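Protein modeling request. Please complete all fields; requests missing the sequence field cannot be processed.
Requester role: graduate student
Desired output: 3D structure, token encoding
Chains: 1
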Amino acid sequence: MRFVPNTDQDRKEMLEFLGIKSIKELFKNIPEELLLKKNLKIPKGLSEIELVKEMRLLSEKNADLEHYSCFLGAGAYHHFIPSIIPHLIGRSEFYTSYTPYQPEASQGLLQTIYEFQTLICELTGMNVANASMYDGASALAEAMIMAFHITGREEIIISRTIHPEYREVVGTYARTKDLKIIEVGYENGITSLEALKEKVSNKTAAVLIQNPNFFGSLENLKEIEEITHKNKSLFIVAIVEPTSLGLLKPPGEFGADIVVGEGQSFGNPISFGGPYLGFMVTKDKYMRKLPGRLVGVTTDSKGRRGYILTLQTREQHIRRERATSNICTNEALCALAATIYLVSLGKEGLRKAAELSTQKAHYAFERIKGVEGFGGVFSSPFYNEFVVKYKNAKKINQILLKEKIIGPLELERYYPELKNHLLFCATEMNSREEIDRLVNTLKEIK
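Delivered output (446 residues):
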């Protein structure tokens, strides 16, 4: 039980117990110049009526995607969410569920996780998936550590075409393990194969690639796999826009050893950046190196089907020296949303959504290229994101927002060499009329 000193007498007794005379003595190690010398300007509390009005006024400042056209992607994608998803995941047995520490009493939850694992394996062309991860970025970092455990090597090669924030997370994880991160540059919007060949060595644990990459371009996975496996390193592929798997050949068919990604596109709203849904799949032979949990299916003594926690590699559950990761929970509710999304769309539905995304993106690309002052940058094939250049990119989004259009990402923020370069995205949610309105607005920019 926590003791919270609510009265002057409580505070006095606490100070006496600690053997000090004032609250200030508690913070004596903090430099004097860093201490606040005046009271915080905190307004008085509001009544419920006043608070509701205040929150409503604040919410009206947000850009509602129901009334805005969105052409921004870069790791967060605006896709259609079937109404069945919020209806089902809103059931109390799902939205209140937690980690199934008593599997015999959690059969429904375990079944949803098992179905999620199955679907992710089928999509990626891999053998075994765990019960989801926190998000795509941490999943990639966990895959890097997994490669280190498998190979014993301490160098990680990562392409600069991977999402910049994913690379930051990987770097943070790497420092805790004293792993060396080596970045590989890009040419024409995709990983430079020549640079990759130069950097791969017998110290390389894994090569990390994103496909489609951060620029929306499609990587040469076949060539990268050959370079990687020739050195007996692991080939890790990240998929940040997973609807692409409805159209593209899965990474498992390119010989990937570990595949990770972000499942937000599968029935989860953008929601100001979270919660997200990471996934991780690998080959059978690496199953025991997977972080987190693995749900399996079996039969009881009467032949009835039952779901179990087959594998838990967290140090809380097994000996610390055999643990692979301390990842705690799984994104069960987000994974359930993704499962319902994939099942409700089915193979043909997912393929149709992917086709619409790529068709609309290519239509938008061709239209924008035709606007005076705008030009294409990379000639590599792309899925639903593309890069264009304009002489004064910073003014674009200011103008588009006034027209209720959420515009592209300014790439200079992450890539200083790409000043005045813009990353556009289009999905099945963008109508032809919206794209034409975007183009007409760009034409009016002087």
